Amino acid sequence: MAVVATETPFHVLAVDDSLPDRKLIERLLKTSSFQVTTVDSGSKALQFLGIHDDDASTVSVHAHQLDVAVNLIITDYCMPGMTGYDLLKKIKESSSLRDIPVVIMSSENIPSRINRCLEEGADEFFLKPVRLSDMSKLKPHILKSRCREHSQQDQEQQHQQSDSNSNDCSNPTNKSSSDSSRKRKAEDNEEILPQKNRPRHS
Q: For bias kind Basic and acidic residues, which ranges apply (predicted)?
């Protein structure tokens, strides 16, 4: 009986202070086969990601160490307290989370706001109401992020293997030179000993 491997769905963290908007984005994401976690503020999003609100560089857990890894964050721009732009900056300032794609949503089409978010590192800017067709734009960003992550892991593994190989190579060389030195010393002794035992002619 053939076993069909099931692919783990991508996990999206959705952030919006509006309950109707939060329900809408959750439904659209689930319809598009994403796994979804929703929170109603930027500070709660940071808590979920393991970042302290006051210091993005202090991370209690890394993204890949979460119970369910976050593959993408989609957040509303206008929220009380911490805006979506503030949340974006916190994420991009974190060394362990900056590679997670971030999408900003807003009901206001303000070019300067859109450009500012994109310049800060946002991958997309959606105008509300978000539509089902927008969901198809998310997966390429997730795949790109995963490829970048895998590439970094491969480079780290190659670096570790290179260090290991250099250590392995250094030991045989030392051993070989030591053996050669002992061999030459033994040969010198063999040449000297017969000379001492030769009979002396008067």
A: 146-157
3-state secondary structure string across the chain: CCCCCCCCCCEEEEECCCHHHHHHHHHHHHHCCCEEEEECCHHHHHHHHCEECCEEEEECCCHHHCCCCCCEEEEECCCCCCCHHHHHHHHHHCCCCCCCCEEEEECCCCHHHHHHHHHHCCCEEEECCCCHHHHHHHHHHHHHHHHHHHHHHHHHHHHHHHHHHHHHHHHHHHHHHHHHHHHHHHHHHHHHHHHHHCCCCC
* Closest-CA residue to 71 (of 29, 44, 51, 101): 101
The reply to whether the predicted model has a pTM over 0.85 is no
Print pLDDT tens along the chain (202 aa): 554 445 678 999 999 999 999 999 999 999 999 999 999 999 999 999 988 655 444 444 444 445 568 999 999 999 999 999 999 999 999 988 999 999 999 999 999 999 999 999 999 999 999 999 999 999 899 888 778 666 766 776 777 777 766 666 555 555 555 566 666 655 555 555 555 455 555 4
